Amino acid sequence: MTRATPAVVATGLVKEFEKGRYTLWQRLRREPDRRTRFRAVDGIDLRVETGEIFGLLGPNGAGKTTTMKMLSTLLEPTSGSIEVLGIDVARHPREVRARLGAMLSGERSLYWKLTGRENLEYFAALYHVPAKETRARIDTALAAVQLSDRGDDYVERYSTGMRQRLALARALLPDPPLVILDEPTVGLDPQSARDLRDRVRDLRAQGRTVLLTTHYMEEADQLCDRVAIIDHGKIAALDSPAALKRTIRAEEVVRLDIGLAGDGAELLERLGRVGTVARHERTNGTLAVTVHCRSARELVPAAFDAAQASGATVRHVEVVPVTLEDVFLSLTGRALRE
Amino acid sequence: MTTLAADLRAFAATVRKELRTVRRYPTQWLGLIFWPVLLPASYVLMGQAFSGSDARSIAAFAERSGTVEVAGFVFVGFAMYMWLSTILWGPGTALRTEQMRGSLEAVFLTPTSRLVALFGPPAAALPTLVITFVVMGVAMWLLFGVALPLDGVLRSLVVIAFALPALYAIGTLFAAGVLRFGEIGPIVQLVRGLFVLACGITFPVLMLPGWAQAVAWVLPPTYIVQDIRAVLLRGLGLGDIAGDIAITMGLTVAFAVLAVVTFRVLERGARRSGMLGRY
Amino acid sequence: MEEIRAALAIARKDMRNLSRYKWSMLATVFIPLYQGVIPAFLFGAAFAVGGRVIGLESAIGTDNLSGFIFMGGVIAGLVATTFWSIAMSLRWEMDLGTLEPTWLTPTRHDTILIGRAIFGVGQFVVSQVILFAVGIAFFGLRFSLDIVYAVPAVAVAVVAMLGFAYLLAGIVLLIREANFFIDSTNFLFGIASGVSFPITFLPLAFQPLALLLPTTYAMDLLRQHALGARPLFDPALEYVGLIVTTLVVLPFGRWAFARAERSMRVRGTLGQY
């Protein structure tokens, strides 16, 4: 049985940028080039299978958008290779773009003085949608994002959520097998974000592959079949959300706020005997601790005992299930939202 | 601190903010040399083409404009053009730009008088103006050999001093009026163009049809340009133009009052409709 | 075929967009009028002796002031269309965020410029027709029917200006403060082409530069045919100059645009604003 061609294969992807300016005036004066180089993407290998929703999860500045732009031909990699739907991106960029639907800058990328339908008509021509099929494709795209009744309104009258959905409709015009979404729900209220996620699930149900970036761990958790956690331009972990959470070797996460006079070193050592201290931060006499454990029922009484033994007071206890945020924390030592 | 002192402090802060914003755009400084020199220079060359340096043509021009000094006539006119551009583009659009960015509401939430937001930005245009006038004077001398007499320059400074409040008032009236319009750029072009046509900036006012001349004589820039040309190029004294100065002052008051009234009307309407926060 | 459809879609989008900014639409016709034509006409008329602009007659062989100015307006309009409606508008789209999604489509990036050029030239033609109508009605504009012989020259100039549009578009997409650059070079280009006064009145050092511009030849040919003006050079030589400069600037402009595009892909500046 032949295996379906993967939707995306990226190998050794690197992107370096130059920081600072080296102006014409500086060059004429033969001043040294003081620009520094930094690697936004530092050797990423990625394989996205056909028909899955694949997420790139990481904080702002992790390299997610840079990666997406390289995949969608907008950015030239410093090194590495990319194949999208079996096509070499470097050698055949236009063919890639003909088969790709991308939503990168969302609501900013629409013409406000045109209606939703007029925006889509325009882009349909640019996507080389055959003239005879244009109307039907636009109707289908508007229906897919539930904007059929607002298609003839000016975009300037749309809410942010509607503009995001229209941008998604535009990405669907070429009837693409692969859809790339960069932070699709950023700036949306919870209801609009939920609606957009439902639209993304519909895309998978239609047999399309979706590659999205997000810094919302709940979104990655709920939506994605597989998640790559990306930080400082590298992939720190890649698997399904459930498998990633299992790497914590914990079932529950306990968050404690403990009031204490000292630095809490002894207390942390005691807590470490009954669980894994993932994170601790001391602010104004309060020690905020995150502990991964198998059972909160075992940890919480032990935590109280440890606090009492150290002359500290437990002020707040919260028990939550393991999330991808905890996975990120355990891999990088930082929170997603820092 | 008294309310007036607080408002004056806020006024100074507004001027500083505008100056800081201008400093962040280096090409604005390039523009301070480019336009004041090349725009009038192109007109002077146009004048040479139309006159053919024929004495009869120059005499005809002098009859209509009051001077044989074509380069001087053009440069003074363009000095007023640059002044109007500076006022309309900068302070004239400052309020509208704040409205579009969403920061106007934030400014209006403070206890500072609303008029600070209206009258502050034009003051920030003064340093630019000084530089523009100096550059134009030097260019006129270097490129076309027109050296301005010192006593004429001093008299023209007096005229400019009286002109400042007038242009100020025009800037604030424009700033108040433009709050209702969606697209600033075309409006600025239109208003600037109308001033260029009406005020004898690039051609003598006498060339306009009668009805247009009537409009010209209710606009302060018409008198200002005429008077600066008179003291610089024809050697007239301040006494000879005292009447014009008085008219200019009267018109200034009228424009300033109109600016405040327009602004207050809009502000009241905005508090009822919520317009300040949207456009 | 698909590229042609895409180019026409771009032109249609630009037309729709402009039609919804009423003031901007009016401005395309009236700015040349009240900022260019009327002041120049009244300034020139201030030199008239017995109703005749004798200086102009000695300079170019005709005292047809309104003809001189309005024909200058044709080339000035073409130059402004190139600089603002085609080149700079790409930068505006980039700043607004609408260029990036366009770049994501399979349409050639050249085509995007050609689409803008189709709209730009259409807008230019319409505004010139209106301006000529105003000229005839209010400024005594008159010209010979031989003006049709200048149409090929203007058409070649349009092609040449497309080359300049590519070059300028490449530059404005890369530099920070594009507005001043376009504003100042637009002005200088027009002056050097002779739209405001014959290039023989330029300082001597700048006259050779004027001869490198295709619009200089188109301007002269237009005034010759429309007004019976004295030509700068032998008309046949002027056509050669026009065609040679066009053949140089068109491929060079496209090359510069491709280079700029590549630079943006390497530096990642397409989505910046």
Describe how the helices and strands are arranged.
The complex is a heterotrimer of chains A (338), B (279) and C (273).
Chain A: E1 8-19, H1 24-28, E2 36-48, E3 53-57, H2 64-71, E4 79-84, E5 87-88, H3 93-98, E6 100-103, H4 116-126, H5 131-144, H6 160-172, E7 178-182, H7 190-205, E8 209-214, H8 217-223, E9 226-231, E10 234-239, H9 241-246, E11 252-259, H10 265-274, E12 276-283, E13 286-293, H11 296-309, E14 313-321, H12 324-332
Parallel strand pairs in A: 3-8, 3-9, 6-7, 7-8
Antiparallel strand pairs in A: 1-2, 1-4, 4-5, 9-10, 11-13, 11-14, 12-13
Helix pairs in contact in A: 4-5, 5-6, 10-11
Chain B: H1 3-23, H2 26-51, H3 55-65, H4 70-89, H5 91-101, H6 103-108, H7 114-124, H8 126-144, H9 150-177, H10 184-198, H11 210-216, H12 220-233, H13 242-273
Helix pairs in contact in B: 1-7, 2-4, 2-8, 4-5, 4-8, 4-9, 4-10, 4-12, 5-7, 5-9, 7-9, 9-12, 9-13, 12-13
Chain C: H1 2-19, H2 22-45, H3 54-60, H4 65-96, H5 99-103, H6 109-138, H7 151-174, H8 178-193, H9 207-210, H10 214-227, H11 235-267
Helix pairs in contact in C: 1-6, 2-4, 2-6, 4-6, 4-7, 4-8, 4-10, 6-7, 7-8, 7-10, 7-11, 10-11
Any idea what the radius of gyration of chain B is? 20 Å
> Order of strands across the biggest sheet of chain A?
6-7-8-3-9-10
Question: N-to-C SSE series of chain B?
Answer: HHHHHHHHHHHHH
Q: Please tally the helical runs of chain A, counting DSSP H or I stretches of 4 or more residues.
A: 12
What is the count of β-strands of chain A? 14
Number of strands of chain B: 0
Computed structural class of chain A: alpha/beta
Give the % helix of chain A. 25-40%
Overall pLDDT confidence of chain A:
89
* Helix content percent band of chain B: over 70%
Number of helices of chain B: 13
Uncertain runs of chain A = none
Overall geometry of chain B comes to elongated
Class inferred from helices and paired strands of chain B: mainly alpha
> What is the terminal separation of chain A in angstroms?
46 Å
Radius of gyration of chain A, rounded? 24 Å
The chain pair forming the largest interface, with residue counts per chain, is: B-C, 47 and 41 residues
Low-confidence stretches of chain B: none
Oligomer: heterotrimer
Strand content of chain B: under 5%
